[in-house]
Every structure is written in C-alpha cells, then in structure tokens.
Amino acid sequence: MTKYSSEFKVKLVNEYFDRQISILGLSKKYGMPSKSPIYRWVHEAEANGLNYLITKKSHKEYSQDFKLSVIEYHKLHEISRLDTVIYFKISPSQVNSWIYRYNHYGVIGLRRRPRPLMAKKKKKQTRLNPTFIIETFMK
C-alpha cells in the first residue's frame, strides 16, 4: 500500500509545473514532513511523464543479475539513487534495499528470497461449559 495516492502525486506535480508554488511550499501547504517525495515525483515526471506517477498494482520479481546490474550502474556512473531509480523505472525502496543488502551481504544478499507464507489460522475450538451440558441434558 502506498502512502500517497497517484492522484495526489499528479496534483502536486502539476501545481509545481504550473509554477504556482515551490517544492518546499508544496510540502508545507499539504503538511508533508519532508519535501523529498515531491522532489522525487517531480524528477520522475520530468524524465518519464506524469503517467509514471500512477501506482503500479502488480508485484514484480527481479532477478539477481538485474539487481546487480542496477547497483553496478549506480556505482559505475557515480549517480544518485534517485537518478538510478528514474533510469531503470523502479521503486526507490527497491534500490535502497538492494544496495543495503549488497553492501552487507554481497552478491548473495541479492538472491530471490521466498515470500513468507501466511500462517493458517486455527479455528478456535469452543469448549462447552460442563454445567451447561449437565443442565441441558437434565431438562
């Protein structure tokens, strides 16, 4: 689940593009704790268009080779994580996670991890009160 809706992102970016208000002004106007998300949305929209801000609903799996190529591109070109995200059109949290895991665990940290299975809830067994049973059969 995303923190901000696609409509909200597009609204703020359009306000910025219309030169109605600065990025800092937008963050204050809408009570956002940081201007960073707006900065990212503006740069993503400049590079890829407003449609890029529409939230994707599917879960996409990336191979270990792809993750490694993203990290190598980021390091080789000495660009920011934001520019890396925009170039590959992927989520900033994914890139941050991959870089963290690569720095702490090496290439092995980029392997696909199985998704945890949801534990099945056991049905709660109702225990009958012994006095209820006796009273029921005594009638």
Automatic annotation (TrEMBL):
It comes from the Bacteria. Residues 66-115 form the Insertion element IS150 protein InsJ-like helix-turn-helix domain. One of its GO terms (molecular function) is sequence-specific DNA binding. Gene3D superfamilies: Winged helix-like DNA-binding domain superfamily/Winged helix DNA-binding domain. Pfam families: HTH_28. Belongs to the IS150/IS1296 orfA family. This is Transposase. It comes from Companilactobacillus nuruki.
